[in-house]
Amino acid sequence: MSAPTTNVPVAVPAGTPSGAPTGPPAHPRTIAGSIPGARTVASRLLHGTPGRMRLYGLLGVIAAVLLGAASANALLASQAAVERAANNTAQVVRAQSIHVDLLRADAVATNAFLVGGLESADSRAKYQDAMSRVASGLAEAAAAQPADGKALGQLSIHVQTYAALVEQARSNNRLGLPVGAQYLKQASAGLRSEAIPIIAQVVESNEGRSQAEFDRSNSSLQLLVGVAALLGLAALAVWLAKRTHRYLNPSLTGAIALLLVTLFVAATQITSVGTATRDVARGTYQRAVTLADVTTAANDARANESLTLISRGSGKANEDAWGANRKQVDASLVDLSTSSELRALWGRYVDAHVSVRGLDDHGRWDGAVKLSTSTATNGAANTFNAFDTRVTQLRNDASEKTVSTLQGLAGNAGLFAALTALAALLAAWLVVRGVGQRIEEYR
């Protein structure tokens, strides 16, 4: 007799449909568990010689893309460096122009002060033109280079103080009051002790930025990545040839040749830009900087000549400063290709100055003032204006040529970078095709 069957009730979770199978819950799905074939597929793809071909082919594709990216990036980096060099050089030119015009204005103001009463309309116009260029130059420089904004703001305050003191000196001089000379001396002293050091620092900072970009324009070091990638592809071709005993792979050979040409073109372009940039740095840029130094030193000398006379026997410090200015101009002219012309013009002014000092030292102050302000052939005013006009013209030409040349360099870098990227993608496709052919043949 069979044992009776005992029906044990089983608890069914609430919400379970009638007739639904019950039992232990299923394990959660994972990449390794729910798709157990993933590892198997990957292992099968990378198994044996065909698997190594696939792996090395993938590395070859990465090498081709890496070479293209490195070459394109080097081209664009070179272009960006040249553009920044052009911008910083333009800022150097602006700052130097402000420096020159400040000292030119002071030279005109101090020399005009030697003539009692109201200065000539020509002198007044020259002074106002120089100060107007200073104001516009400050605005342009502040907008062009935010890093100089704070320094240029302080400089603007000192320039306004200088202009106000000059106006006070001019008003008192017109009335024949001796206090005018003190205002003028105070203005000139403040200009040299407060304003000039700031603008000199701005010039130096932008010269440093320009030089850094000149050095950075040659981005050939980045191309070493491309060389390493190219060597990797060559190693892949050799390995495939040894494993398959097929020594010519048109697709892979074409990829290597295409990348080799791409790397050569990129390296040539970058080297050419770097060489041209260095030539500009050593050529017209250095010439512009030297001519600016000559112009500022010469105008400073001219102002010191007038200040010596204004001091009436107590201007030894100003005459010593004139001597230092002369040495600076003489030393700078040695390095210029057109120095023979400039030396002749500068020599004429030096001769006129020596005559001015000779008259003053022998007690003929009125004669010294007359010669210093004279626009006659051998007058100090005439000889200095001739030199100042010519050196300013040469400096402007060199500055404009420097900026325009830099702006024209690496103009096609963007196009070359795009072509380099396309060539790298085409080479990557050829690598895939070449390796794929060998895998099919191996099977």
Protein described:
It is a single chain. The chain is mainly alpha-helical and 443 residues long. The chain has one domain. 80% of the residues lie in helices and 0% in strands. The protein contains twelve helices and no strands. Helix 2 runs parallel beside helix 7, helix 5 (179-216) packs antiparallel against helix 7 and helix 7 (250-311) packs antiparallel against helix 11 (380-408). The protein is rod-shaped. The relative contact order is 0.13.
Features:
12 helices, 443 residues, mainly alpha, rod-shaped, disordered N terminus
The number of distinct structural domains comes to 1
Total of DSSP H or I helical runs spanning 4+ residues: 12
Query: Percentage of helical residues?
Result: over 70%
Q: Report Rg.
A: 39 Å
Return residue spans where pLDDT drops below 50 for at least 5 consecutive residues: 1-21, 30-36
In sequence order, what are the helices and strands, one letter per element?
Answer: HHHHHHHHHHHH
